[in-house]
Amino acid sequence: MTNKKKHISYEERFAIEKLINAGYPVREISRILDRGISTIHTEITDNSTQGKYVALEAQSRSILLQRNKKLRHNKIIKNPKLKKAVEELLLEGLSPEKVSEFISKKRSLPNISPKSIRKFLRQKA
To answer: What is the domain count for the chain?
Structure first.
């Protein structure tokens, strides 16, 4: 298996759909696509609707999850108080470095890096 830690492509999803419809078992599909059995099994179970796997729906869901993943893991977005404080300080004209420094002095808010603040700004744009 050479595809460790890579997302399944639309072409692979399309092949999975066709192979399932042709009656191939999961083990054989994983061998054909050179993917792990658990990868194929998880793909099929997570993206089947009413017992049917549709590649286009699976691809749409995957794209949406990948886009939202970064938002879910941003410390600023997860903490409403922190978000409000960062936005207010940025509106005052402070740089991400100064915002980080100011917030680190406040005991009630978690520390954040200037890099996290810049990432937050890019996601808002």
So the answer is: 2
